[in-house]
Structures are given as structure tokens and as C-alpha cells.
Specification:
Radius of gyration: 17 Å
Distance between the termini: 48 Å
CATH class: Mainly Alpha
CATH architecture: Up-down Bundle
Strand order of the largest sheet: 1-2
Organism: Luteipulveratus flavus
Low-confidence stretches: none
Pfam families: Ferritin
Strand content: under 5%
Number of domains: 1
Order of helices and strands: HEHHEHHH
Protein name: DNA starvation/stationary phase protection protein
Mean pLDDT: 95
Shape: elongated
Number of helices: 6
InterPro entries: DPS_DNA-bd, DPS_DNA-bd_CS, Ferritin-like, Ferritin-like_SF, Ferritin_DPS_dom
Largest sheet: 2 strands, parallel
Family: Belongs to the Dps family.
């Protein structure tokens, strides 16, 4: 429990917000590691486009983790950014693809973005009484949605169908996109 929090926020609300932010921190740390993993393991058609598209995403998501960790600290919490901390709060599966085609990785990443964005939107809803944290996550979510659009643009055909888009898992999406 925090010894203090930001002015105008009660301890109970701060503790709840810190808990939700800790889950966002874990998700962002996992996401930037996943993005870098894909960057190193993507092969095939469009390799260089995908390889180079991912680095700006990695850097921005690392920045999101830093901003969330700093918000946790400002509220009197202890940001937890270790691998074990990610695993402790993780409610998603580890990214399953290794070396694979750009289409397979992008279809799997589309599912990863689905999960992170959906979780962010749920977090936003819980922050009604804490607009500073809400604003932080809203801005980050907008950028993540743009990144997902970049990913989907590689997977979309002329009719608007997204390869792997109707699958519920990363591996299913990847298999569909291959």
C-alpha cells in the first residue's frame, strides 16, 4: 500500500488505479518484447517493410511502459517491471511464433493488438474517478489502434477481409495467413 498518493485522490481509489496500471505496465512490457521478437524472426515477402515498421512501435511501447511506471510511482505505488511481474499478472498466452513469414507474424500480432487494446479500453472505463490516468491510457490506446491499422493494412485484401481476422488465437490467425 502506498504511503501517499497524488493530491485530491483517496488511498482506496489510488490503490485500485495503481493495480490497473500495473496490469497495463505488464502488458506494455510484454508487447514491446513481442514486437522485438517478431522484428528478429520475420522472414519472407515484405520482410524489410515489416522489419522496419516494428522498431518505431517497439520504441513507442517502451515509452508507454515508462510513462505508466512513472504514473504508478507518482501515485505512491511501486512499478513492477520484472519478467516475473509480467508473468504474475498475465492473463494472456505467451506469443507462440518463432521464425515465420511476415504474413503469419502480422496476423498473430493483429490478435496481440486485439488483446492489448481491449484491455486498455476496460482500464479506461475503470478510471472514471481518475482522469489523469484515464487520459494517459486513452492517448496510448489511440496510438496502439493506429499501429494495429498498420498491421491490418498488410493483411487486408481488396474486399476488406483481413487474413486471420476471424480466428480467435494467434496461431490460428498465423496459419490462416500463411
Amino acid at each position: 500500500m502506498a504511503q501517499y498518493t497524488v493530491p485530491g485522490l483517496d488511498d482506496k481509489t489510488a490503490a485500485q488505479v495503481i493495480d490497473v496500471l500495473q496490469h497495463r505496465l505488464a502488458a506494455y512490457n510484454d508487447l514491446h518484447l513481442t514486437l522485438k521478437h517478431v522484428h528478429w524472426n520475420v522472414v519472407g515477402r515484405n520482410f524489410i517493410a515489416v522489419h522496419e515498421m516494428l522498431d518505431p512501435q517497439v520504441e513507442l511501447v517502451r515509452g508507454y511502459a515508462d510513462a505508466v511506471a512513472e504514473r504508478i510511482a507518482a501515485m505512491g505505488g511501486e512499478p513492477r517491471g520484472r519478467v516475473g511481474d509480467i508473468e504474475e499478472v498475465r492473463d494472456w498466452d505467451d506469443y507462440s511464433l518463432l521464425r515465420d513469414t511476415s504474413a503469419a507474424h502480422l496476423a498473430a500480432l493483429n490478435k496481440v493488438y486485439d488483446g492489448v487494446i481491449t484491455s486498455n479500453r476496460k482500464a479506461i472505463e475503470t478510471f472514471e474517478s481518475e482522469p489523469v490516468s484515464q487520459d494517459l491510457i486513452i492517448g496510448q490506446t489511440a496510438e496502439l489502434e493506429k499501429f494495429q491499422w498498420f498491421v491490418r493494412a498488410h493483411l487486408e485484401d481488396q474486399s476488406g477481409a483481413v487474413a486471420g481476422g476471424d480466428k480467435s488465437t494467434e496461431s490460428g490467425a498465423a496459419a490462416d495467413a500463411r
